[in-house]
Design brief:
Largest sheet: 11 strands, antiparallel
CATH architecture: Roll
Distance between the termini: 35 Å
Shape: globular
Radius of gyration: 20 Å
Number of helices: 4
CATH class: Mainly Beta
Number of domains: 1
Helix content: 10-25%
Order of helices and strands: HEEEEEHHEHEEEEEEE
Number of strands: 13
């Protein structure tokens, strides 16, 4: 399990025109519910002590997005994960989890992932479709003494479950007021704490607007330096990823319809005097209906 987590950390810390422009804005209806399905299909490679290990993985989550009400501040919203299915393989060991199966919920991974199923995150979305950070109320995180179980929990959080982000459907355009067909714009973020330095830069291009859908393509980079502690060990994770993909937005509601991104990363995990090179490729698909 430690070997799988070590390499996985470097990967996951690691979308005829009917209009001429698109103005980012959401128009939501109180009481409306949406199903959000996230699929992650990837493979990582790590080199350690002269050996190369490949780790394929497949993770799917099914969540419910509910529009509770509208006010002058925006739309009050709830987001909850209802189902998680996970499969991984490494060193001849298969790791599987299905939240619908009793035997999996009671197994080793269950202690870490079960608490994320049914946990509701509440937040408010402004008129431009961005989450008001001060409004986010996340599920209460239980502290576990078993670091081994917390490892998998941390990985799932990096995929947007548990006490991590609010919802992948929003915060698509943070600094743009109007986009013309054929135009491109850059969206960049930077966070810096003593244990985490992350920089992202993404260039979006509006290709066309057709049948009420705005079609975008994008390319970008994600650079991460992160320090984590697991099982009493300090790990320094670095990852540099190149990302590309496409995204579809419903013009009437401003909601994401589908986003597909492909990330290819290189990096390393430094632990106990060893530096373990890692590479990975992940395809992530988010669908809303």
């Amino acid at each position: 399990m430690k070997s799988i987590v070590t390499s996985f950390l470097a990967l996951v810390l690691t979308i005829g025109a009917t209009a001429q422009s698109y103005i980012p804005a959401v128009k939501l209806t109180a009481g409306k519910k949406y199903e959000v399905v996230t699929l992650v299909d990837g493979k990582m490679t790590q080199d350690a002590m002269g050996q190369t290990m490949e780790i394929p993985m497949n993770i799917s989550t099914t969540s419910a997005l509910s529009i509770i009400g509208a006010s002058d501040k925006g739309y009050s919203t709830e987001y909850v994960a209802n189902k998680v299915v996970l499969s991984m393989s490494a060193m001849g060991q298969d790791i599987n989890y299905d939240s619908d199966k009793k035997e999996d919920r009671e197994g080793q991974l269950g202690s870490s992932i079960n608490k994320m199923i049914g946990a509701t995150t509440k937040f408010t979305v402004d008129a431009k479709g961005n989450i008001i950070k001060e409004s986010v109320v996340k599920p209460v995180e239980d502290k576990k003494e078993d670091d081994n179980s917390d490892m998998m929990g941390m990985m799932m959080k990096n995929l947007g479950l548990g006490n991590a982000g609010a919802c992948p459907v929003f915060d698509l355009f943070t600094n743009v007021t109007e986009i013309k067909v054929g135009d491109s714009f850059v969206d960049s973020t930077s966070t810096k704490t003593p244990d985490d330095k992350t920089k992202t830069s993404t260039t979006y291009t509006l290709k066309e607007i057709k049948d009420g859908i705005a079609f975008f393509t994008f390319t970008g980079t994600i650079d991460i330096e992160k320090k984590v502690e697991q099982m009493g060990m300090e790990m320094n994770v670095t990852s540099n990823a190149k990302v590309n993909g496409d995204m579809q937005i419903d013009v009437a509601t401003g909601l994401l319809v589908k986003k597909v991104s492909v990330s290819e990363s290189t990096g390393s995990v430094d632990v106990q005097g060893m530096s373990i090179p890692t590479t990975g490729k992940v395809t992530s698909t988010i669908s809303v209906k």
